[in-house]
Amino acid sequence: MRSLVILSGVLLLCTPGEIYACGHVEYKDTQLREEAREVVSQYAKDFDEYIKTLRQSKTSEQRDRANEKRPKPVPNAARLVSWAERNPKDSVGVDLLVTVVSHSRFTGDAQKAANILSRDHLDLHGVQFRDAAFQVILWPMPVAEKWLRAYLDKSPNRQTRAMACLELALYKKWLLERAILEMDADWIDRLEKNFGKGSTDYLKELDADRLKRDAIALLDRVVDEFGDVEWSGARMTDLARPHHFQLSKLAIFKAAPEIEADDLDGVPFRLTQYRGKVVVLSFWATWCGPCMAMVPHERTMVKRFEGKPFALLGINGDHDSATAKRAVREHQINWRSWWNASAKDEPISKTWNVHGWPTIYVIDHKGIIRYENLKGRVLEEAVEQLLQEVEAGAKDE
């Protein structure tokens, strides 16, 4: 059935569903569905190409060019998101919502798409839930926890509930790390640029002790309630335990585990050889763009604290030590590194539960972990503070 409609003095013949509350002619739902399908398909191809190019990048310049290929937020997503909301039973709509959440950062469209998913699609599971969750947990806002709790409490799919429980624990852990960086002015500027001032206000109100307790409790729940659930060939118990270890054993004011492995030249040495010095542990690799971007500052920091009881020690994650040794020469890296794969029982990064590169630990002269993931000026200030503790201790003796 066709209707005669007058808009701005123009006669239009329209079919039902063609005119919406916004007061102008829209595409038919069938056209929007096809556009949504094409967006989903194109973004999947573009993201695969981006990841492929990034993995093949060997230099910082190549990585910069690769990052230029990262898919931008879905343009004009609002009408497609609205179409998906009107058609909750259409699988293309679900695909579209996941794509918008995964590739639109913290935009209004992404937030709306996430809200629709947690309201109308609690049966989301597998790769779709993973892709959406991986982006949502990067939002330093209360909406992220609300989204994950909706799936943990209400999803009919046990695997989804298990993944939501694990991701919520990791979100709490991530917030704990971010709260430590709250004093970093540069980091605050970047955070407010991406997420608005509300994000930093939210971080300032967080209770670090409570975050840690909540994260550990959620990880305990993963093991107790969902331990037998599998994801990507691994049991939830095995996925949760390393994070539990890190929070309980590698936490601030815990003794740093020993590292005993070979350096890049095959010469063995131990972390405890540096007892009495303030130590910065830097997990780095040539394939890690942010790692290599930190090298100039790290090089300057080593020179600045020369002659003081300080050491910067690296753990290199390259697949072969020759690649790392070449980087040491080319980038004038002036500190010693263990080769990650040379440890006797398991890679050093596994013992230290490192999942993201770079990872930084600051250890005091007594071998106690004092800070995690500090960078730039804040890292230097932390080292200076710990060096003052060394000097104060020497005066008291």
Automatic annotation (TrEMBL):
Question: What Gene Ontology molecular-function terms does this entry list?
Answer: antioxidant activity; oxidoreductase activity
Q: Where in the cell is it found?
A: Cell envelope
**GO CC aspect terms:** cell envelope
Start and end of every Thioredoxin domain?
A: 250-392
Does the entry feature the keyword Disulfide bond, yes or no? yes
What Pfam families would the database entry show?
Answer: AhpC-TSA
Q: Which domain of life is it from?
A: Bacteria
Main subcellular location: other
Which InterPro entries did the record assign? AhpC/TSA, Thioredoxin-like_sf, Thioredoxin_domain, Thioredoxin_ResA/DsbE_sf
Report keywords, A-Z: Cytochrome c-type biogenesis, Disulfide bond, Redox-active center
GO BP annotation list: cytochrome complex assembly
Q: Which residues form the signal peptide?
A: none
- Protein's recorded name: TlpA disulfide reductase family protein
Organism lineage reads as: Bacteria, Pseudomonadati, Planctomycetota, Planctomycetia, Isosphaerales
